Amino acid sequence: MTRFRIALTALAALGLGSGLQAQDNAAKDGGRATSGGHSKGAFMAAYDANGDGKVSDDEFKAGREAKYKTFDLNGDGKVEEAEYVAEYTGRLDAQIARHRAMQIKQTYVRYGVLDTDKDRNMSLAEFHESGSRMFKRLDSNEDGVVDARDPADHY
Q1: Alpha carbon 6 to chain centroid, angstroms
Q2: Residues 14, 62 within the same domain
Q3: Do 119 and 95 share a structural domain?
Q4: How many domains does the chain have?
Q5: 90 and 133 share one domain
Q6: How far apart (Å, rounded) are the C-alpha atoms in residues 41 and 33?
Q7: CA gap 155, 39 in Å, rounded
Q8: Per residue in 62-105, pLDDT tens?
Q9: Which among 61, 65, 91, 95 would be 20 to 30 A from 105, CA to CA?
Q10: Residue 109 lies in a domain
Q11: For 29-123, where are the alpha helices, taking DSSP H only?
């Protein structure tokens, strides 16, 4: 593996590289992302630079050029396979990190709900209390069994 490819792999692992930080910040700040699916809505979000609800050919080309530059990690005007993959890897890693952080935060919230006496120790009784609420919501016909006859779909 060349030193260049090793450096690109390291950049991807660290979530570094030109364009990655800007994309991550744009996503956090509610800014426009340059990817997000293949729908017309994603296309409009990515390329409608002036927010007028239309994408001109000039806007499209400018957006594509800006996106291309995010792939060109070494700035040589060409995008090697390793650069392209490293840019995506960095973006994906940042997305996964944001999702993980949100889920961990939510885990603390759920624990706070389960620990009803707020002593920072969830007892089996507290855990069962939460489970009982779940069961009662799903056993909507109150026959003591959760099955297909219960119309409730969520707890």
Answers
A1: 26
A2: yes
A3: no
A4: 2
A5: no
A6: 12
A7: 32
A8: 999 999 999 999 999 999 999 999 999 999 999 999 999 999 99
A9: 91
A10: no
A11: 40-47, 57-71, 81-114
